[in-house]
TrEMBL record:
GO molecular function list: arsenate reductase (glutaredoxin) activity
Keyword check for Oxidoreductase: yes
Family named by the database record: Belongs to the ArsC family.
Protein name: Arsenate reductase
Record EC number: 1.20.4.1
Top-rank taxon: Bacteria
Length: 144
């Protein structure tokens, strides 16, 4: 299966997402988007395919979001895209693209929606949260 992850190695959510993809027996194409950002067309396509608005795909935390005034509601999608392409760290992460769909995998287990059910056993996130049981089946959290 052809899977592409727009990855940021310093991000725990991105690392967990990558590990879940690998747990499904898939070695994805890894794009370190801060070093190799997507083209404008690719970014627009990922955002649209994931069912998001441009603003929803914009990352605020640990970015120049505030300094650039990107919270201004009068900014257009084109202006936000310009900022994201000029400062790729503003692209929320990780985006994952598979033949089954595109997701912004926040939280990381959203990636399971677009992967085949070929998981190789249990999976626990870096923070200790169990996501898959020993048979590779999703562990659903009860609402609190």
């Amino acid at each position: 299966m052809d899977v592409r992850i727009y990855h940021h190695p310093a991000c725990g959510t991105s690392r967990n997402t990558l590990a879940m993809i690998r747990n499904a027996g898939i070695e994805p194409t890894i794009v370190e988007y801060a070093k190799n950002p997507p083209s404008r067309t690719e970014l627009i396509g990922m955002i649209s395919d994931a069912g998001l608005t441009v603003r929803q795909a914009l990352r605020e935390k640990d970015t120049p979001y505030a300094e650039l005034g990107l919270g201004n509601p009068d900014l257009t999608d084109d202006q936000l895209l310009d900022a994201m392409l000029a400062h790729p760290i503003l692209i929320n992460r990780p985006f994952v693209v598979t033949p089954l769909g595109t997701r912004l995998s926040r939280p990381s287990e959203l990636v399971l929606e677009i992967l085949p059910e070929t998981h190789k056993g249990a999976f626990t996130k870096e923070d200790g949260e169990k996501v898959l049981d020993a048979e590779g089946k999703r562990i659903l959290r009860s609402p609190t």
